[in-house]
Design brief:
The complex is a heterodimer.
Chain A lengths: L2 H12 L4 E17 L2 E19 L2 E7 L4 H22 L5 H5 L6 E5 L11 H16 L4 E19 L4 E19 L2 E7 L6 E3 L3 H7 L1 H15 L3 E2 L4 E7 L1 H13 L4 H4 L29 E4 L20 E6 L2 E2 L6 H6 L8 E2 L8 E2 L4 E3 L6 H6 L3 E13 L5 E13 L2 E7 L1 E6 H6 L1 E4 L6 E10 L4 E9 L2 E8 L4
Parallel strand pairs in A: 4-6, 9-19, 10-17
Antiparallel strand pairs in A: 1-2, 1-5, 2-3, 5-6, 6-7, 6-8, 10-24, 11-12, 11-16, 12-13, 14-15, 17-18, 18-19, 18-20, 20-24, 21-24, 22-23
Helix pairs in contact in A: 1-2, 4-6
Chain B lengths: L3 H11 L7 E17 L2 E19 L2 E7 L4 H17 L23 H4 L3 H17 L3 E17 L4 E17 L4 E8 L7 H14 L9 E7 L1 H13 L4 H6 L19 E3 L21 E5 L2 E2 L6 H7 L18 E4 L6 H6 L3 E15 L4 E14 L2 E5 L3 E6 H6 L1 E12 L5 E17 L2
The chains are: A alpha+beta, B alpha+beta.
Chain lengths: 485, 444
Amino acid sequence: MDPLIATALDTARQRGAEYADIRLVSNREQRIVVRNGVVETMTADESVGLGIRALYNGAWGFASTRELTSAAADQAAGQAVQIARASASQNGAGMTSEQLLGAPVTGRGSYATPIGIDPFTVSLDDKLALLLAADSEMAAVPQVSARMDNLVFIREERTFANTEGAHVSQTIYEAGGGVQATAVGNGETQRRSYPQSHGRQQGCAGWEYVVAMDLPGNARRTAEEAAELLTAEPCPTDIATDLIIDSSQLALQIHESCGHAVELDRALGDEAAFAGTSFLTPDLLHNFQYGSEHVNITADSTDATGLGTFGWDDEGLPAQSTDNIRDGQFVGYLMSRESATRLGLSSNGCMRASSWNRIPLIRMTNVSLQPGAWTLDDLIADTDDGIYLETNRSWSIDDRRYNFQFGTEIGREIKSGKLGRLLRNCTYTGITPEFWRSCDAVCGPEYRQLWATPRCGKGQPGQIAHTSHGASPTRFRNVRVGVMR
Amino acid sequence: MLGPEHIGSLLRDALRNRHLGDADIYLTATTQALTRFANNRIHQNVYHDDAVAHVRVAYQKRQGRAVTNNLSPDGLRSAVLQAREHASLMPEDPDFPGLPSASQSASVHAYDEATASTGPEHRAAVVGMVCRKAADAGLEAAGFYRTGVTELAVFSSRGPRYCYHAGTFAGLLITARSDDSAGWAKGGGWRIDAFEPEALADEAIDKAVRGRNPQSLESGEYPVVLEHYAVDDMLEALSFYGMGAHMVQDGRSWMNDVIDQPAMSPLVSIWDDGLAPSGWPVPFDAEGVPRQRVNIVTDGVVQGPVHNSYTAAKAGVASTGHQRGATGGPTATNLFMRPGDRTTDQLIASVDRGLYITRFYYTRLAHNRGCVMTGMTRDGTFLIENGEITTPVKNLRFTQSYVDALAGCQALSNTAHLNLNEAGVAMHVPAALLENWRFTGQTV
């Protein structure tokens, strides 16, 4: 064991901690942004530090430092225990660490993201050439007033150890990229993105992941669609109709209305002041029809290229796959050791910290809708009157994850089983369980894509998590659309 | 704290290379301690510090960047060389004006020793008081109490010039909850005595008690009285979706087509002032340019956006000192809205049938023209009938142009409150009476 880790854990124990864990993190990130033909950002970020959690009389303390010296680690360990003691002073009688955390976690080993080409070995010239080629394709469309494309590469080395004997090391790679075109005209502003919105698509992968996106090959079409939307028909106003939702928009729908709703810390009230709670309270576990029988949702931290894929979570639990919704029934939460123990369960390894100076929280891994058996052509042909929606533009949901409203970049009318006119400013809204119970068809595995949500906010101080969601195009009946102004 | 001398010495040494050309370093150092509570107990309690140097090297019409939290001489030197390499690889940007010229920064006092030295025992005691008050009222309290110090510094090889600012921050956020209601209160500023914890606890608890047994309300348009928390959300959205000049220059701002137009009520005046001690002052931006007071909306007429050196050069004007971070566009983060002449009770009294709203939640841009936002009400929504608050109401979804809503501003309260968020964005705003707000759905 690294002497620095051993020293810090020893110090925490000597100061009275019943349990302590430590994470050493070294993060390297490269980001290149081209905006309107100009390289706006080309940066190399480096962040290194360690964070220590300590448990004293059933209460937590956490301290961190960017200095990787034994003296600094020792000081942070002492500070974590001091803070835990302050917490305990107000909390009353506490539980033992075993009562609070359940069975000890003692995993050991190492893990690295499987990659083809290390993105940090690819020259900046090659990366810039790719972005500038995509930008020039978008620039060929005259109505486009703003163009943006970007690449992001991350390599993070993490070591976790605890006073129970766990010691694991991981090297996680991420690679991402995307293009975005904004067109202005006819008193309108319209945006199209590729492969998805929110800046980029991203995965735990190497350079090959970005090459496969073919940003230059898709940039012109993306810009042309933005221009075409300026004169498209507006989404029908405030009607109920059938929706076929493409996999990228559905990924965010899963994220907001299922992924967050099955976080056990929310259900137990731990996030009540900020992110909110959840309508999926513990009394509903195995006792609530969340969706139709076509709805099967799974959290899987072993899903290849997912941003929630790793070897161990930040409490040392191994990567695993567990069901959240099975045949429409609510059957499982995303859990930590502490929250799982409160329900008499065991953690399914969902504790993740965004940085060395943040505590782990319950976060989504790769929460995905399992594919059905439909082809997209058959699904459209089977729909008399509806809208096909693609690519998220706006998103909002209430603090218990009931009432949501999403907007998409683009819609296409479906009439008599055929795709028709382009539609702009599409929105849809609903109540989560009513919406998922209206799901009557899911396309097959050949349509499944694993989409990134690389900016999921939670916690105070704030943390940004990287998660992914697999989905195929899916149909929902009788959904309210067209709420704009 | 690192202190002005130590930071100055580090940055000066890092840029000592005579062959480097123009360069600057923006350094941010933050220590923050945050005691978080839920279910009437402390469940998270953290301390962190970090110091990050953002290095920028300009080479002809090119600029390169690197970022590091390794402040050793080797770490900083390595970042400088990396930024220099990046600059050399860049294609030329014909609009890049070079690094800003040397200028004298204003200074503003926003450091409070009592806030900086607050320890975990004090924070825990305050949180304990809040939790006991909530428990006594039969409620569950959740929230946080945070304190800390932020140091900002810019050292530029042009001049040479060095700006340094140290500011403290404190915030107490409380949600009080019952099975079917919630109340909210939040105080913040650069001093821990900028707010009264007991008063904030009482405010949140009162809302949660009065909010029990909420009724459903039909969607539709209603006049609204917005508490300053909700007005804060409006200004944040108007800032992030359109007060930066880069958005105007791209055609993506709500300001496009309405600059110099009376787009809002004559009662509405909004300005950004990074030097006002009643806000959360920051006297210079990430380029080391002094913050200028900028009028955004005056008597309802839209004036224009805030600038950094890049957008200013494109527009042929001077930078207003609003480059918020090392990258990204200029942002208005110290906004003020002119108060009116009514008390909040008078605002309520002038509504026949409408809604009283504590705050908004999860608000997102639905369309940039007019800054159309969708979001939810949260933590205290009440029906106003015949000039009085009568009935708690279940939370409602809205889809509303914030520009149009402020066009219908009928009155503002005569007091304004500072709303300081966790990202350092400060809005000093009154409560508002708005003629119409479009509610488009209800929650369960």
